[in-house]
Amino acid sequence: MLDELVAAWPPAEELADSGYLRPSLAAATPIAATGLRPHGEFGLAVVVARLGSGRLMLAPLVRAGTGWRRARPREGASAALVETFATGATLDDGFLVRQLAPVAMLPGERAIGVDQTNESVVVGGTVVVKWLAQPALRPPTVPDLQAHLAAVGYAGVPRPLGSLVWSDAARDQAVLAFLTEWLPDARDGWDWCVQDLLEHVQHGPEGCVATCPARSFPAALGRLTAGLHVALATASPVIPEPDTIVDRRIIGGWGTAAMTALDTALELLQDGAGALLRTCADTLRSDIASMDTLSTTRVQHIHGDLHVGQVLTSTRGLAVIDLDDDISIEAAERGRPLPAARDVAQLTCSLDHVGRMVDLRTGGTANAVIERWIGDAQGAMLDAYRAGLAGAGRPDLLDERLLRPLIAERTCVELLYATRVLPRWLYAPLGTLGRMASARRNDGGRSLQTG
Ligand code: ADP
Ligand code: MG
Q: Which of 29, 351, 371, 434 to pair with 75, CA 20 to 30 A apart?
């Protein structure tokens, strides 16, 4: 299969104008491929390609005339992968299926019509196939978190069904696609949290009642996150030693990476955005530097990209998705244990982003209500998170000293993500900086008065 694709490279593709900046397959060299459903009426294949930077790209492909093109939802590539799980059909060398639960053969595909970094397709109305846009090779010792959560019986994720994995000649492995149960009536947090806050803004603080969802969901997110971290820190056959202590050397590495993110953002951000970042740079730098005082801290496997968009609400309650890879971490670093505070810091930032989205939709007219909600929501989420850990007898999973530096780090990483991948999102992390700058001004004012 690989030879055929090499001869026909590059495949045709439509670089959809979704706002996401994605490299083209033409910029990459195909390094591995497998056919899917060899007896189907048209050729289907999965190709792994390497960019000049060393990063990997992945695409499902479909035969088009004498050549190939990137498969679109409805063209059968995702259904063919589900069929491979159902029938145990063999794949080309290096490709294997890791199955966690039985999967039936299912007809029919449709795209998920929301913003997404990767490409998820619903097959047969019951299974989501998520093709990872940038798979990463990792040593086989990096555990499969889906398998771990299934082993400890964690119910806060849609049921994991398995994954498609590719191993290179050195036996490093890259997950290429995940299969999970589809929750048909689910909405993600960029939808439901934003909707709840819009309602809160519409009735205003005066008309607000105790049952207002915008007042209760932050605590629910905190409890959910605590449950997830406790599950990830529970021993299983997949992860027998789920948490451990790291020393200064590792912590220093996080600090260096965070400072690099800040410096890179300072280089990349232009005009007003750059000026705002420069106003906050000292605060961010000193927050990050506060990590230097730690000589040890606890690490475990965490979600890695935990924001409200990763929390679905459905008739089954809240569920966390997307526990795969954080593309903000260099491929070689992914899959390593990290402090739980990193997820908590990112979730804290994303509550701010919910506020920014509502601020944009209400044209800045409700800014004061929103700013107040952000502070309250972040506090309530954190309190519920701490209570959740304490209730499970694991308060030690959170190192409070890391929250401030990791919120600063996440803020810089979000700025970089928006600049490089999703420019239309930049207003949100800039809003976070605006809040930081005004807190700084207010603090400055207070210290002047008291001084
Ligand atoms: P990405 O890495 O591209 O963000 P996600 O795995 O977070 O991909 O999924 C993107 C979107 O697809 C989610 O925000 C959600 O709307 C929808 N989605 C993903 N998994 C499911 C599921 N199991 N059930 C229902 N909707 C889902
Ligand atoms: Mg996601």
A: 29
Spell out the residues 6+ positions from residue 209 whose beta carbon is closer than 8 angstroms to its own.
none
Rounded mean pLDDT for each run of 10 residues along the chain, 451 residues in total: 91 71 86 79 84 91 89 88 92 94 88 72 93 89 90 93 95 94 94 98 90 96 98 97 96 96 97 96 97 96 95 95 73 81 97 98 96 97 98 98 97 96 95 91 54 29
Strands in 317-320's sheet, in edge-to-edge order, are 187-188, 311-314, 317-320
Ligand 1 pocket, residue 306 CB under 6 Å: no
Q: What element of type H or E holds 265?
A: helix 248-268
Q: H helices within 157-212, ranges in order?
A: 189-203
Q: How many CB atoms lie within 10 A of CB 448?
A: 8
Tell me the torsion sign for CA atoms 139, 141, 147, 152: negative
* Inter-residue contact 145 to 301 (CB < 8 Å): yes
Alpha carbon distance, N-terminus to C-terminus of the chain: 74
Residue 146 beta carbon below 6 angstroms from any ligand 1 atom: no
pLDDT at 7: 92
**Beta carbon of 6 within 6 Å of any ligand 1 atom:** no
Q: Choose the residue to mutate in 20, 114, 116 for probing ligand 1, maximizing ligand atoms within 8 Å of C-beta.
A: 116
Per-residue pLDDT at 428? 98
The DSSP result for 326-358, as a single string, is -TTS-GGGTT--B-HHHHHHHHHHHHHHHHHHH
Beta carbons of 79 and 109 less than 8 angstroms apart:
yes
The Cα 352–Cα 69 span in angstroms is: 40
**pLDDT score of 17:** 58
Count helices and strands (H / E) in the chain. 11, 15
What is the distance in A from the centroid of ligand 2 to the CA of 293? 33
User: Which tokens sit at 402?
Assistant: 């890391």
Ligand 1 atom with minimal separation from the 132 CA: 2
Alpha carbon distance 186, 334 (integer Å): 28
Contact between 398 and 385 under an 8 Å Cβ cutoff? The reply is yes
Tokens coding 162:
């398995």
Q: What does the alpha-carbon distance between residue 395 and residue 341 come to, in Å, rounded to a whole number? A: 12
List C-alpha distances in Å: 277 to 253, 255, 397, 435, 438: 23, 19, 32, 12, 13
